[in-house]
Every structure is written in structure tokens, then in C-alpha cells.
């Protein structure tokens, strides 16, 4: 073969793909002498230089990190200064569990950072702490959440002053490590179906906690296998009566149950604890199973904010029905869901940062007889990573909005705000964690074989994050809750009811978005029009409103023959699409708002570019929906596609600055393949060279 012949040379049509591959490999083994860059490469370099935005990384990261930057930096610096508290690759399950406990104790007692104190008073600071902790070790972040948000949060949110007075300090300083015992072997999502029983004994003034069958064993309970001393146990409250039934089921309530001796850590009488063993991920968290055999507890450790039992066995509550009490109880526990949505964005930022930095550093192939080019210059790599980078920013602002609404809810206790946060957290938790789970695999693939090395983190990130799609509410179940809430709002609209804050655009959508698309606007193709936030948001909301109207009609039709449950199941995929579309609309609205509010001009221009990519990429990915109803004419669809490709290229030009805007310390990303000039030196050193 002529060494000067290139794979682009069409004068030899007989050259096979195998011979072209051999030719490329030979160029790697015997590089041609240096020469001047080709015209094509010069054009590429000039295009980048001419169109690249200037981004002030300090201003961008300041805007992104917000007011809790200092406490996050304090946490990172503390763990960076303590090699003995850093989690090694390949740590065993038992070692990891003990290390996580030491890490948590060190955070609270040595670094003097007390997350529990912010649970109610400053939730935004609490979630900022959990984000920083999760970047150190995800198992540590989950263990912290179990201790303070779940176990501690249940005492604060479901108990009364007597419980806070008795348990607050012990939870805060880790003298009282505890568990959140809700999930059972046979019941996870269906909390009202829990079978554990708490029967009141008026003779001894005690509740008797009992596991009636194997299906009622509390399962996957964090902190239970090794470290927990208490558990908030969710059980049906059973009261004796004098009628023919002899007992009355008052619904699911929460009880504080000691499970280990405070000094010896020995399991208490009537308690059986089993280890759930090695998991796919999060092996620093000691998940266990709990069985109760007629365990007696004092009446006053019923967490009685929403319902109480007197000494003579009388039940009282400010809420009249089991369903209302259950809804109020779950509404107070929504913080865990908020935290998972927020934490999942952290996973996405880390993985995107590693993949983008690697893609900027890694060079493969290029024009004939020229230097190899960055793999991020390939359109395929840009289309993998740039929309994902845009989504990282979009989710950041959406989850910060969620935290803001949650903080307002904790202060105001407004019933409508509670319902709004419940639905918003369900949608964002489900949507963000599902997207991040897929993106972790994509980032691994985008880094080729090097992404498969454990030291480069994708495996542990993917495995640790995977369960985020299940706990604190299965994602499919949560999306159904969002759809159900939208249908309720749809019904209220036609019955004259008020619409809640998050869904208020539906009032306008029923009148505007569902009218016949304007044939003139449907043909507008200019970049200014396509990059107009009003066009983008209207398109998202139009899709949501069409889905809402059509699924409501289908449910009415099928309920006549299948009943309400059968109709819901028949339309389930349609309902999930509706919930997804609505959540995307909320995310885009918050992104547009964040762009508008950004004080720095260069950062605002960069965020506008990223926001446009996020919006138009989603519109293009569902272009069939818009074409089917002539919301977008054929030529406009082509214009959207071309502009999306252009925006991908423009975002690629500032991709390095954008991932720097996350301001993640090297100890957080800590993947050798993403470490600039030290990349391969550290990587090869890791395996012994």
C-alpha cells in the first residue's frame, strides 16, 4: 500500500474497509512528517475561535454554587486533610460500613458540622451539606440521610415537643443512631398495605409491636444491620373495641422502637435483626431486616402529631379520616424525595465533568497526515454529551427551585403548598434519577475502555446511583402520582376550582395551547424565533396540554367498560408520557427564569446558549408529536434540527468552561482520565507503572 494514499482517496474503489483500517493503524505506528494544517482543520479552528463565547468561570460558579458555598468547601477541605477517612477503591463491605460510620462521626464531632440542626430551620443548607458529603462517598451521603433526614426527620416531623426534647441531642451528636423502618418484604410502594401491627394494651399502657408473617418483615432498613439503636417503625395502629369486631384499625402510624442496648449494642428481647448482605452498590450502608415478636413499648413513644391514644385507649386526631392522616404523614416525609432529586444532579455533574474533560483531552484520528483531533470534535460525541451537559444545568436550577419550595413549606405549613411540593418532588425525583441513571452509562461509553476502570469512577457512581430510581418511591409510581394530580387540576378547571402554583399554566393552556396551531407561526424558521423562550416554553406546554386532554378523554371512555382501575391501567403509558412532559415543562420554565436572573452578562450568555440547546433538543427528539398536529411545519422542523446541531457545536466550544462552572474540586471528580496534564501519568501509576 502507498503510505501517502489516504482513506479519503476514491481513486481506488477496491480498497476494502479492512485495508482502510490497516492504513489508519500504520499511520499511528509510522506517523507522517509534520506538515501545515489542512484547510479543513484551519476552518474548524477558525470557526471555534470566531464563535466561542468568553465565559467568566468565577462568576458562573458563584452563581451556580449560591449562598452555601462556604460550608461545602469546609466539608471538602476537612476530608481532603484526612487520608484515613477517604474511601479506597475495592474496599470490602464490612470495612466500608465501619469507615462510613467513622466518617460520619468525624464530620459531626471533629469538623463540628451538625446537619440535623438544619433539617427544619434551613433545609437548603442541609441539602448543600448532603451534596458535598455525597461527593466524598455516596454511601456516606445515604447513611447521613438515614440518620438525620429519615430517622431524625420522622421524630421532628411526626412527633411532638416531648419527642424532640427527648431525642434531639442524641440524634444530633450520633449517640442515638437510628433507622427508618417503613418498607416490608411484601410492601414497598403501597405503604397503606403495611402489615406490621402495633396493638394497644390498656392494661399495661403499652403498644405491642408484632410482625404477623414473613411478608411483614421490615426489609432494606438502612443502619439496621450494624449501627442502629432505634427505629421509627411504621405499623397499623390497632385499638381494642367493645363491639363485635373487638379491634379497630386506625391506619398506619409511626412508633419509636429501641432495637439495641445503648451500651452493649446487643439486640433487645423480641427483636430479630438480619443482614441484607452485599448489594449492587452503597455497600457502606448497613441494610438489614427487622422482625418484631410481641415487642412492648410505652404508649408515649407513638409519634403523635397527627393522631394520639389516651391512657384509656381513646383515639383522637385533628384529621377526620385514615386517608387524610396518611396523606399528612407522607407529606411531612417528602424531604427524602427532595434530597434524592438534588443528590442525583450531583451524580450527573460529576459524570459529565469526567466525560467532557476526558473527551477534550483524548485525541483519535483526524484529517489525513495531520495531528489527531479531540474526540469532542466529533459530532457523535457532541450529541452524546452536550445535551447531557445542558440537562445538568437545567436540573440544577429545577432542583434548587424544589428546595426553595420545600423550605417555604416547612415554614408556612400551607396545605396547598404541601400538595404542590409533594407532586413537584415526585416528578423531579423520578425524572432526574431516571435520566441520570441512563446518562451514567452513556458517560462510561463515551470514555471508551478507560471508562471501565474502577479508578475512573463510572462503575461505582452507576451502581451507587441505581437504587435512586426505587427508594423514596418507585419512579413509575411517582410519575403516576404526577399524572393523577394533573388530572385533578384538569377536573378542577372545569368545575371552577383554583389551580395550584406549579400547575397554573394549565389554566391558560386549556384556552390557548389547545386551540388550532397558528399556521403562520408554525412556519417561522428564524433562529431568533426558535431561540425565543416564549416559543420554547409554549411548545413544551402545548405538548403537555395535548397529552392531558387526550388521556382524560381516553380515561372517560375506558372507565365505562373497564372501571376506574382498569381504565387507568389501559392508559398507563399515556399517563407516564403526560407526567414526563409536564415535568420537562417545569424544568424548562425554571431554567429560563435562572438565565434571566443571572447578574453576570458573560455567564448569562453561556446559560442562554445551554438553555436553548436543552429546549430545542427536546423539541427535536419529539418532533413527530409537533408534526402530527401541524404545530411545526416541515421546513421549521428542519430548521430546528439544523439549529440544534449548531448549538451542540457552540456548547462544545465552551464545554470546558461549563463543567468548570460546577466548581467540583479535583477530589470530587478524582478520575485520572479527567485530570488535565496529569491524566495518564496518574492513571498508569495506579496500575503499577
TrEMBL record:
Signal peptide: none annotated. FAD binds at residues 183, 222. Its main location: other. It is found in: Peroxisome. One of its GO terms (molecular function) is FAD binding. Residues 532-675 form the Acyl-CoA oxidase C-terminal domain. The keyword Lipid metabolism applies. Keywords: FAD, Fatty acid metabolism, Flavoprotein, Lipid metabolism, Oxidoreductase, Peroxisome, Transit peptide. It comes from the Eukaryota. Residues 331-486 form the Acyl-CoA oxidase C-alpha1 domain. One of its GO terms (biological process) is lipid homeostasis. Belongs to the acyl-CoA oxidase family. This is Acyl-coenzyme A oxidase. It comes from Gossypium tomentosum. The lineage of its organism: Eukaryota, Viridiplantae, Streptophyta, Embryophyta, Tracheophyta.
Amino acid at each position: 500500500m502507498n503510505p501517502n494514499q489516504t482513506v479519503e482517496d476514491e481513486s481506488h474503489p477496491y480498497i476494502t474497509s479492512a485495508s482502510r483500517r490497516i492504513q489508519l493503524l500504520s499511520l499511528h505506528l509510522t506517523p507522517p512528517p509534520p506538515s501545515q494544517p489542512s484547510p479543513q482543520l484551519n476552518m474548524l479552528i477558525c470557526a471555534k475561535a470566531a464563535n466561542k463565547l468568553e465565559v467568566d468561570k468565577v462568576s458562573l460558579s458563584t452563581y451556580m454554587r449560591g449562598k452555601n458555598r462556604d460550608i461545602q468547601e469546609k466539608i471538602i477541605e476537612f476530608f481532603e486533610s484526612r487520608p484515613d477517612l477517604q474511601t479506597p477503591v475495592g474496599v470490602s463491605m464490612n470495612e466500608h460500613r465501619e469507615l462510613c460510620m467513622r466518617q460520619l462521626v468525624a464530620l459531626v464531632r471533629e469538623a463540628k458540622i451538625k446537619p440535623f440542626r438544619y433539617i427544619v430551620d434551613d433545609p437548603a443548607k442541609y441539602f448543600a451539606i448532603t451534596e458535598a458529603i455525597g461527593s466524598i462517598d455516596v454511601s456516606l451521603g445515604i447513611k447521613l440521610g438515614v440518620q438525620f433526614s429519615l430517622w431524625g426527620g420522622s421524630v421532628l416531623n411526626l412527633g411532638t415537643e416531648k419527642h424532640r426534647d427527648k431525642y434531639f441531642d442524641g440524634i444530633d451528636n450520633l449517640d442515638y443512631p437510628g433507622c427508618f423502618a417503613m418498607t416490608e418484604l411484601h410492601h414497598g410502594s403501597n405503604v397503606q398495605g403495611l402489615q406490621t401491627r402495633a396493638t394497644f394494651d390498656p392494661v399495661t399502657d403499652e403498644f405491642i409491636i408484632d410482625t404477623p408473617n414473613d411478608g411483614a418483615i421490615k426489609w432494606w432498613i438502612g443502619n439496621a444491620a450494624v449501627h442502629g439503636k432505634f427505629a421509627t417503625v411504621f405499623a397499623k395502629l390497632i385499638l381494642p373495641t367493645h363491639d363485635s369486631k373487638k379491634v379497630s384499625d386506625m391506619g398506619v402510624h409511626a412508633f419509636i422502637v429501641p432495637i439495641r442496648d445503648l451500651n452493649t449494642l446487643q439486640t433487645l428481647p423480641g427483636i430479630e435483626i438480619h443482614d441484607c448482605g452485599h448489594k449492587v452498590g452503597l455497600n457502606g450502608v448497613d441494610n438489614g431486616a427487622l422482625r418484631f415478636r410481641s415487642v412492648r413499648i410505652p404508649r408515649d413513644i407513638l409519634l403523635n402529631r397527627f393522631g394520639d391514644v389516651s391512657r384509656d385507649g381513646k383515639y383522637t386526631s385533628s384529621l377526620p379520616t385514615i386517608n387524610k392522616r396518611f396523606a399528612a404523614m407522607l407529606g411531612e416525609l417528602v424531604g427524602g424525595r427532595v434530597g434524592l432529586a438534588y443528590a442525583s444532579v450531583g451524580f450527573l455533574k460529576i459524570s459529565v465533568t469526567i466525560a467532557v474533560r476526558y473527551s477534550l483531552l483524548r485525541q483519535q484520528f483526524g484529517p489525513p497526515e495531520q495531528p489527531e483531533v479531540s474526540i469532542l470534535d466529533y459530532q457523535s460525541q457532541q450529541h452524546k454529551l452536550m445535551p447531557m451537559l445542558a440537562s445538568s444545568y437545567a436540573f440544577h436550577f429545577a432542583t434548587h427551585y424544589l428546595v426553595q419550595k420545600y423550605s417555604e413549606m416547612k415554614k408556612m405549613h400551607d396545605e396547598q403548598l404541601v400538595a404542590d411540593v409533594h407532586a413537584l418532588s415526585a416528578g423531579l425525583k423520578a425524572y432526574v434519577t431516571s435520566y441520570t441513571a441512563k446518562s451514567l452509562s452513556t458517560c462510561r461509553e463515551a470514555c471508551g475502555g478507560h471508562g471501565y476502570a474502577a479508578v475512573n469512577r463510572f462503575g461505582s457512581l452507576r451502581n451507587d446511583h441505581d437504587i435512586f430510581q426505587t427508594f423514596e418511591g418507585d419512579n413509575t409510581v411517582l410519575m403516576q402520582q404526577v399524572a393523577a394530580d394533573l388530572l385533578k387540576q384538569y377536573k378542577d378547571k372545569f368545575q371552577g376550582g383554583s389551580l395550584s402554583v406549579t400547575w397554573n399554566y394549565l389554566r391558560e393552556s386549556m384556552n390557548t395551547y389547545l386551540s388550532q396551531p397558528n399556521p403562520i407561526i408554525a412556519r417561522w424558521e428564524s433562529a431568533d424565533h426558535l431561540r425565543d423562550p416564549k416559543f420554547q416554553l409554549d411548545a413544551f406546554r402545548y405538548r403537555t396540554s395535548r397529552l392531558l386532554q387526550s388521556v382524560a378523554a381516553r380515561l372517560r371512555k375506558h372507565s365505562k367498560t373497564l372501571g376506574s382501575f382498569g381504565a387507568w391501567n389501559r392508559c398507563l403509558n399515556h399517563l407516564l408520557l403526560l407526567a414526563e412532559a409536564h415535568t420537562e415543562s417545569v424544568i424548562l420554565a425554571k431554567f429560563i427564569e435562572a438565565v434571566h436572573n443571572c447578574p453576570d452578562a458573560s455567564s448569562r450568555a453561556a446559560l442562554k446558549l445551554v438553555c436553548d440547546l436543552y429546549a430545542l433538543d427536546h423539541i427535536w427528539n419529539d418532533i413527530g408529536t409537533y408534526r402530527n398536529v401541524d404545530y411545526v411545519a416541515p421546513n421549521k422542523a428542519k430548521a430546528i434540527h439544523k439549529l440544534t446541531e449548531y448549538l451542540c457545536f457552540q456548547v462544545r466550544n465552551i464545554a470546558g468552561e461549563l463543567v468548570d462552572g460546577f466548581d467540583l474540586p479535583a477530589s470530587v471528580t478524582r478520575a485520572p482520565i479527567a485530570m488535565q496534564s496529569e491524566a495518564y501519568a496518574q492513571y498508569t501509576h495506579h496500575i503499577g507503572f
